[in-house]
Specification:
Helix content: 40-55%
Strand content: 15-25%
Number of domains: 4
Largest sheet: 8 strands, mixed, barrel
Strand order of the largest sheet: 19-20-22-23-24-25-26-27
CATH superfamily of the largest domain: EAL domain
Shape: elongated
Structural class: alpha+beta
Low-confidence stretches: 1-18
CATH topology of the largest domain: TIM Barrel
Oligomer: single chain
Number of helices: 30
Distance between the termini: 115 Å
């Protein structure tokens, strides 16, 4: 294929879809000719034809012209003549584009026409920037065809150009909007987005200058957002300007929440304090529109400045509305991203940094003082009895307390320090760069604790909250973040152990104790799986018959190294770690299974009692679990008694009573253990569905020598009798104690006087020898 043929094919391919406008023009001419023929049925003469043709092309708003081979105009319609700033066609004929326009523009036109002449192929639908702008950026769609003589020889070119500026502007606007929306979607910096938006509007509105101002966080001032083509001095002067009813176009628009159009800034009273700032720029009018959120709250302003006095046209208003809307979307998106970013690294309630942000920055902070003769002091603190405030006053009051404490801690530290909310009522404070003087450190921390303990007004009442604080110093008591946190946490738990409301500095002794505690915890966790737990049973004797009627199941841990371990050693750890729940279930299941085995072995029926922990009792489905264990072991519910402490019940009286009634409905018996040692409420006691009160060993131990213990024990027995409850005394060891209890009316006893706790096989032997009082059931 020849170069010429290839080129012609390319032009034809490029323009095949773009000659629609030219064809429509030809069709319109044909229709006009048909109409003329209908009105004038006679054959028109040549003069008429020339007149009609001239009239037709002069009424067409497009450029229509013909040129010779040298590019000289041969003929053109009126609009072509006028737009070339000429008065008549004779002024245009014989001239070339080089005579009328700058060289570079004329050369581009000449090159196109030369291709048409050389190839003999028309070019349709060329989009080109108009040489004649008419005060705006104009685009033309041009088609050019060879001008041929009667013999078919090319003698020049014929051109037609249509103004497509509106279409090009619409395309540019759509492209600009798509680019802006893409910037929003990609989270491009807000300043870059504003610049792109303003430059788009300025390109569509030549001579116009744009500006975006943002409303300050306090809602009272406007801050510079973007103004790529406004004077920098002017932008700096209005940065931070206060909004108000007479505050220029932008300040007033933000104040009113509606558009403010000032046609002449030098004549409008709204500009009386600002007009002098704009005078050097030559700008005369300013039209400001508030940028609004979806909730119609003012976010900022979008303004256009013009050198001409006047108001915006309809088209300009449309562009202003579009720009303000896009700016609002971008601002809200950015704020949402900022909120998400803030929430990812800050506590939503107090606004303090969270654990994530702390761990991101603390290593840098520690590295900054590494090698210096300074400490970084990490304090781990926990508010004392916060749960009590939450439960008694509600979570809203608890939240207010946490916010107040957070603000006090922030106010008590330096900007270089760090305050973190870990979660719940736990906080971390990092004091950075303190002298290595223990007294200085402790003084600073005690000041913070004193600030926390100041009275707080909550729901009309004054409350005080103390804190337990554990402290570890970098690098002496931890060289990594994890070591510091672990050691400070250990010290904080030590502060709680010794009575709360105090400060403890980490020591190696604490580390050893913590390590030992962790080892105990792991061994206890494995004890269940390894079947190292076992039960001993202590008989309970009826004072009336002198026979055994029940047995209390007491947990023991047969450690492979340490031997038999008392529950007093490991039960507190089990409570703290939550292991008491599976351990308690094991005890209940093992006790029921053992009693059922004795029954099947032919021993007289008796009751087995088991202690219940607070953690067990608070389980939502605990009564169902008791029923399931009874069904699993085959033991009738009437042979099981559960011992509940006063303190356990009084934590949640209404909830406890509900659970107790569920157990009663199953058929299980209930007893109150350690009666008199906890928080007693006699009004609540009468509502408890219990059968037995158990007098704590602390009241029995000094009977009959201690008169107070005699009085307390006698009162408990008397109270139980009046409420129709049976009474059992534990820790009974002497004949004198037995005689007193019998005389006072006590029903049953338990203690070394009769028998120590026994392994199951020894208890079975005792039971066979001593017999059983089945009436005790």
């Amino acid at each position: 294929m020849s170069r010429k043929t290839s080129r012609n094919t390319r032009y034809a391919a490029l323009n095949a879809g773009d000659n629609l406008e030219t064809r429509r023009l030809i069709d319109a001419g044909n229709r006009l000719a048909e109409e003329v023929a209908r009105i004038f049925p006679r054959e028109p003469d040549i003069a008429d034809r020339h007149y009609w043709l001239e009239t037709m092309i002069n009424h067409v708003p497009d450029y229509i012209y013909a040129k010779d081979l040298e590019g000289r105009f041969l003929i053109a319609n009126d609009v072509t003549v006028a737009d070339n700033s000429l008065e008549s066609l004779r002024d245009l004929v014989g001239k070339t584009d080089f005579d009328l326009h700058p060289y570079e523009f004329a050369q581009a036109v000449a090159d196109t026409e030369r291709r048409v002449i050389e190839t003999g192929e028309p070019i349709f639908g060329i989009e080109e920037r108009a040489i004649v702008t008419k005060g705006r950026d104009r685009w033309l769609m041009t088609s050019k065809v060879p001008l041929r003589s009667k013999s078919g020889k090319i003698v020049g070119t014929v051109g037609i150009s249509r103004d497509i500026s509106d279409r090009k502007e619409a395309e540019r606007l759509l492209e600009g909007q798509a680019r802006l929306l893409e910037m929003i979607a990609k989270g491009e910096p807000l300043g870059e987005f504003f610049d792109e938006l303003i430059l788009l509007i300025e390109a569509l509105l030549p001579g116009i200058r744009g500006s975006i101002l943002l409303l300050s966080d306090d809602g009272g001032h406007l801050l510079h957002g973007a103004a790529p083509n406004l004077d920098e001095g002017y932008c700096a002067a209005i940065h931070g300007a206060e909004i108000g009813p007479v505050a220029g176009s932008c300040g007033t628009a933000a104040w009113r929440g509606e558009q403010v159009v000032v046609s002449d800034v030098f004549a409008d009273p709204l500009w009386q304090n600002y007009a002098h700032l704009l005078r050097p720029s030559g700008l005369r009018s300013c039209w400001s529109t508030p940028i609004l959120s979806r909730e119609r709250k003012v976010l900022g302003t979008f303004a256009l400045y013009s050198r001409d006095v006047g108001a915006p046209s309809e088209r300009q208003q449309e562009l202003i509305a579009m720009a303000a809307h896009l700016a609002g979307i971008a601002i809200e998106r950015k704020r949402a991203e900022d909120r998400i970013g803030f929430m990812a690294h800050h506590d939503s309630l107090t606004g303090l940094p969270n654990r994530v942000l702390f761990e991101d920055q603390v290593t840098v902070m520690l590295d900054a003082i590494r090698g210096r003769d300074q400490w970084a002091v990490l304090a781990f603190l926990d508010l004392d009895n916060f749960k009590l405030i939450n439960d008694s006053l509600g979570h809203a009051a608890g939240d207010e307390l946490l916010k107040a404490v957070a603000q006090r801690m922030l106010a008590a530290v330096r900007k270089s320090d760090f305050v973190v909310r870990v979660g719940g009522d736990e906080f971390i404070i990092l004091l950075n760069g303190l002298p290595k003087e223990r007294d200085v450190v402790l003084s600073r921390l005690e000041d913070i604790r004193a600030e926390i303990a100041m009275p707080v007004q909550l729901q009309g009442r004054s409350l005080q909250v103390s804190c337990s604080m554990g402290v570890a110093c970098f690098p002496d008591q931890g060289r990594t973040v994890s070591e510091l946190l672990a050691n400070a946490d250990t010290a904080m738990y030590r502060a709680k152990e010794i009575g709360r409301n105090n400060l403890q500095v980490f020591t190696e002794e604490m580390a050893a104790r913590a390590h030992e505690k962790l080892q105990w915890q792991e061994e206890l966790r494995e004890a269940i799986a390894r079947e190292e737990l076992l039960l001993h049973f202590q008989p309970q004797m009826s004072l009336e018959s002198g026979r055994i009627f029940a047995a209390e199941a007491l947990l023991r841990w047969k450690h492979p190294v340490r031997g038999i371990i008392s529950p007093a050693t490991f039960i507190p750890l089990a409570e703290e770690t939550g292991l008491i729940v599976p351990i308690g279930d094991w005890v209940l299941r093992a006790a029921c299974r053992q009693l059922k085995a004795w029954q099947e072995a032919g021993l007289p029926p008796l009751i087995v009692s088991a202690n219940v922990s607070a953690r067990q009792f608070r389980e939502g489905n605990w009564a169902e679990r008791v029923a399931a264990i009874l069904e699993e072991t085959g033991l009738e519910a009437r042979y099981l008694e559960l011992e509940l402490t006063e303190s356990l019940i009084m934590q949640d009286v209404s909830g406890a009573i509900a659970t107790m009634h569920e157990l009663e409905a199953i058929g299980v018996h209930l007893a109150i253990d350690d009666f008199g040692t906890g928080y007693s409420s006699l009004s609540a006691l009468k509502r408890f569905p219990v059968r037995r009160l158990k007098i704590d060993r602390s009241f029995v131990a000094d009977i009959p020598s201690d008169g107070d213990d005699i009085a307390i024990t006698s009162a408990i027995i008397s109270l139980a009798q009046k409420l129709g409850l049976r009474v059992i005394a534990e820790g009974v060891e002497t004949q004198a104690q037995v005689e007193f209890l019998q005389k006072a009316g006590c029903d049953e006893i338990q203690g070394y006087f009769f028998s120590r706790p026994l392994p199951a096989h020894e208890f079975e032997s005792l039971l066979r020898q001593a017999g059983c009082d089945a009436d005790g059931i």
